[in-house]
């Protein structure tokens, strides 16, 4: 999706058209007026010679005819800036001037509709606020929901906004934000596949380009979702893919309408601007997720290293204990060997250490250095386990047979 941001700004702000009318007499008969004036008051026939209050009764109800009476009575002009005007079902804003005429009693009306400019300015203010939220690393759900609500509140015509987020594989779309769509509708489309002909959003995601469906009731893309759309009161859906800087799919930005509708260039510019904003928010979210995952991996690796070091310390301490025990047993065997020189077979165990052992000496052990000792079965087994060079001597009745028959 490529577009010139400056062109989008111009499309959003539009080209305002000046309105002009000459009114005469105390009843403010429309003597002449340009097409923009008749379009503004909603008179398709462009009728003249009729009092303005009759052509546009809502102007009288809102006090504009009274202002004209004041200008006609005082001869002093009146200027209004960015004034809200209800024109039937439409809300509009105007800069206008009521000037007293010099040729005949009457009023010259000159004005410029500022509705599009006003809405665009408000949207741009909301856009800046969204960018600030993204910079502050606000939660993605808050950014997307706020964006959708801002567009819905400020758009000139009713629109329902939806943002769907792409799965990492780009094959499915998940609910992101849709504050005004029915819950049953959001649940039904959560997880829809991306593919040609899968509604407006699935197709836009697959094609990586905007998909404009002006009438859901007849468009083949909506064959599988038409009944669902009717239940939700939806008649048109314009979807724009949300793309990353590298062209990867991030999601879709959709604008739904209650009636079939063809988009204006300002609508398309609005979609491009806010799809780009959504892309910034989603990419920032992905970056934060990746950073948190990396931090978690570092913490896990640090914990694993700490556990390995703790186990190594325990093994080292155990080895040191075994070495000390082996040294003590070797010393005992040295002492026993010296005793055996005078008394070959002692009555009591010689392997009890300093505490001594009163058990009978039943088994003889020796080491590769020629030292030998007699001991009870328990101390003999301890010596064999802890001193690798020790073995059971098979001489007399205290040899291997005595150990096996213990």
Automatic annotation (TrEMBL):
Domain GAF: 139-292
Matching Gene3D superfamilies: 3.30.450.40, PAS domain (3.30.450.20)
Leader sequence segment: none
Pfam families given in the database record: GAF_2, PAS_4
Coiled coil: 298-329
Keyword Coiled coil: yes
Keyword tags: Coiled coil
Organism name: Actinoplanes lutulentus
InterPro entries found in the cross-reference section: GAF (IPR003018), GAF-like_dom_sf (IPR029016), PAS_4 (IPR013656)
Highest taxon, organism lineage: Bacteria
Annotated protein name in UniProt: GAF domain-containing protein
